[in-house]
């Protein structure tokens, strides 16, 4: 199978990610999911995908990406919190900034150059160029700043899709923000 038909997806067990998984498989892609240890794979049960669990280290992620050799990486995972508590700062930074940086580092070390990233319209309160609604939105912006480094220095070709609030059949409504 040509490398451009191999996808690595973060967030593939989520609402949007599981829909992407189904679509790519229907179009003939070979799909690999990168999961957190606490991921709930219920939305992907019975779907023919390879799953890989990230242990949190950059070295393991470099090895995984090297073994998978994806033509395209879809980075949909994030920790979403409309409002945060003190205890949430570390998980928000770990999941939304550190993990993304580890992923792009692993891509650059293995010659994987195509990335589809997801941001949020919550980075642009009142249609501003940058005006974060919450810490979650600030972490998404922080990752985009790190991603710019890899685009400029490592030949990564990236596009960030800014998603609005998402909800549809099979999903449960999430919390809303206080500034919206």
Sequence-ordered SSE layout with sheet pairings:
Blueprint: E1 6-10, H1 15-26, E2 30-35, E3 50-53, H2 58-68, E4 72-75, H3 89-109, E5 114-120, H4 135-154, E6 157-163
Describe the overall structure:
The chain is globular, with a radius of gyration of 16 Å. It starts with 5 loop residues before the first strand and ends in a 17-residue tail after the last strand. Strands 3-2-1-4-5-6 form a six-stranded parallel β-sheet, with helices on both faces. Helix 3 (89-109) links the parallel strand 4 and strand 5. It contains four helices and six strands; from the N terminus they run βαββαβαβαβ. It is an alpha/beta fold. It has one domain: NAD(P)-binding Rossmann-like Domain (Rossmann fold, 3-Layer(aba) Sandwich).
Which key phrases capture this entry?
180 residues; globular; 36% helix
Summarize the structure.
Helices cover 36% and strands 18% of the residues. It has 180 residues and is an alpha/beta fold.
Rounded Rg: 16 Å
DSSP E strands, number = 6
Helix coverage percent of residues?
Answer: 25-40%
Mean pLDDT: 87
Q: Note the overall shape.
A: globular
Model regions low in confidence, pLDDT < 50 over at least 5 residues: none
Annotated CATH architecture: 3-Layer(aba) Sandwich
Distance between the ends? 46 Å
| CATH class value | Alpha Beta
And the CATH topology? Rossmann fold
Strand order of the largest sheet: 3-2-1-4-5-6
N-to-C SSE string, H for helix and E for strand: EHEEHEHEHE
- Tell me about the largest β-sheet: 6 strands, parallel
* Contiguous helical run count: 4
Superfamily (CATH H level) name: NAD(P)-binding Rossmann-like Domain
Which structural class fits the helix and strand makeup?
alpha/beta
> How much strand?
15-25%
- How many discrete domains? 1
């Amino acid at each position: 199978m040509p490398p451009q038909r191999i996808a690595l997806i973060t967030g593939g067990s989520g609402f949007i990610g599981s829909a992407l998984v189904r679509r790519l498989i229907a179009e003939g892609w070979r799909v690999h999911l990168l999961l957190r240890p606490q991921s709930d794979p219920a939305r992907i049960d019975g779907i023919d995908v390879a799953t890989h669990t990230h242990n949190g280290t950059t070295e393991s992620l470099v090895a995984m990406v090297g073994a998978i050799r994806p033509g395209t990486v879809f980075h949909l995972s994030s920790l979403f919190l409309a409002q945060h508590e003190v205890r949430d700062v570390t998980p928000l930074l770990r999941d939304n900034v550190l993990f993304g940086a580890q992923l792009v580092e692993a891509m650059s070390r293995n010659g994987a150059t195509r990335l589809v990233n997801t941001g949020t319209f919550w980075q642009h309160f009142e249609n501003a160029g940058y005006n974060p609604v919450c810490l979650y939105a600030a972490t998404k912006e922080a990752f985009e700043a790190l991603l710019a480094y890899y685009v400029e220095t490592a030949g990564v070709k990236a596009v960030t899709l800014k998603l609005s609030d998402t909800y549809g059949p099979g999903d449960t409504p999430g919390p809303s923000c206080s500034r919206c």
